[in-house]
Amino acid sequence: MPRCIFCDAELRQDTKPEHILLDSFGGRKTTRKVVCSICNETFGKTIDDELAKQTLHIRNMFQLRSGSGGEAPMLRRVEVGQDKIDIKGDGTMRRVAKPFKVTYPSADKVEVQFTTNELEEIFRHIPDVAAILKLPEEQVREQIFRSTAHSIEQRPDFANFTYLFGGPDAIRSMAKAALTLWATHVGNNEVRGEPYAATRVFVLRGSADFTFTRSELDSRAMYDAAEITRRYGPIFNAIYVASDANGRVVAHYTLNNVIGFRIVLAEDGGVPSRQVGLISNPLDPAVWTDQAASEIPIPFAWLDAPDYPDDLHMARERIVALHRLYQSLMTPRVIGRISDEVFAKHGFTNGDDSVPQGALERIIREISGRLAKHQLSLPHEETISEEEIRALWAAWAAKRKR
Ligand SMILES: [Zn+2]
Fold it and tell me: Which domain holds residue 346?
């Protein structure tokens, strides 16, 4: 029976499968023959979690599902102007705010402001507001019907997000992935040997010294990026491990084709002149390979020559490319969502052939207006009439009676 490369525990038939590229990154390649269940679980809750956080924005932006099909992560409390919003993995947004605020602008005046995601939520808070104002619920409700309501939709400007990559724990997770991948290629005994001792300790416990001397950011464009993106899409994740004739073993880990890391797994004495590579397309997790070393081999010299110029020029260029990609990939989805919403608001379904000409023109005008605002990142705002609020109340009250 093979042994865990980190703690020497014997691996069994029922050892939990370890994802080499994180499941949350869309990784599908797993192994039961390298890492024991206990190490797997411990890493998952600590260093893997830290690495996963670093691509949270990207995964949310592109609505990237995990390798096992889980929804993209939610972004919590993103600041948009005066508001904070949660952006769910499917792109829908919810305001994070107190549902209502009671203020007294003068001695004889009281103002109640509601901030909710659905108008119906206001109805649910009527008893609380009535209690605070010491008024009958019915009176509060009538007041609400006659006040002005606005519906606002706003999209945060993704260009304002800052990207922070790296940090000791994230690098430990990458080193763990690289060692695990290497073990599937050269065997556990090789990776459990002395040349890799420092890397194993680093993965298990961390080491400031290792972080500084053996890992480095790499902002160069990926080697043969054109071919890799042709096969695995524009925001691929890639892990390569290779050794030279002296048995120096280095890993190169690329996150979403935005930033790379070089980690020295063994300074010398490892198995010489080998290479293994894993690439995955997070836009379509079914598309991946663990045969990258033969499909798209990368020279050892390139892998072992990371570069990270002070002006961060390359990294910025790649982030700009990422945002351009966002516009081109995600705009059609936004158009679909807005069209569906507007059609529904007018009582039709998108694509319905029987929409009368006059209504269709109004719908198209409204869709164009909302899209134009969306493209300019302007809030979309509309006033809700008293009739609309009364109708919603009637529907809500009827639903509650049932
Ligand atoms: Zn273990």
Answer: 315-401
Query: In this structure, are residues 50 and 173 in contact, taking their beta carbons and an 8 Å threshold?
Result: yes
> For residue 70, how far is its CA from the centre of ligand 1 (angstroms)?
26
Local confidence band at 330 (pLDDT 50, 70, 90 cut-offs):
confident
- Are 184 and 225 part of one and the same domain? yes
Place of tokens 């207006």: 369
User: How far, in Å, is the centroid of ligand 1 from the Cα of 24?
Assistant: 21
How far apart are the CA of 165 and the centre of ligand 1, in A? Answer: 27
354 Cβ contact partners less than 8 Å away, ≥ 6 residues apart: none
pLDDT digit string, tens, across residues 28-86:
999 999 999 999 999 999 999 999 999 998 999 899 999 999 999 998 888 776 777 88
Residues 275 and 365 in one domain: no
- Cα of 280 from ligand 1 centre, angstroms: 26
36 C-alpha vs ligand 1 centroid, how far in Å?
A: 4
Q: Is residue 328 part of a domain?
A: yes
* 303, 337, 358 - which closes a domain: 303
Q: Is the pLDDT of residue 326 over 60?
A: yes
Q: Would 378 be classed as within a structural domain?
A: yes
Report the alpha-carbon distance of residue 138 to residue 67 in Å, rounded: 52
Q: Is the dihedral angle over the CA atoms 189, 45, 232, 28 positive or is it negative?
A: positive
Task: Enter the pTM of the model.
Answer: 0.81
Whether 187 and 241 share a structural domain: yes
Tokens found for residue 198: 């420092």
Amino acid at 322: L
Ligand 1 mean position to 50 CA, how many Å?
19
183 CA to centre of ligand 1 in angstroms: 14
Is residue 266 assigned to a domain? yes
Q: Give 91-127 pLDDT, tens digit per residue.
A: 777 778 788 888 888 877 888 888 777 777 888 888 9
Ligand 1 centroid–CA 337 distance in Å is 46
Q: Are residues 44 and 190 in the same domain?
A: yes
The Å distance, Cα 353 to ligand 1 centre, comes to 61
Q: Residues 245, 344: one domain?
A: no
Query: Same domain for 328 and 292?
Result: no
- How far apart are the CA of 14 and the centre of ligand 1, in A? 14
DSSP state of 39: H
Q: Find residue 101's DSSP bridge partners.
A: 113
Residue 303: which of 313, 293, 315, 318 has the closest Cα?
293
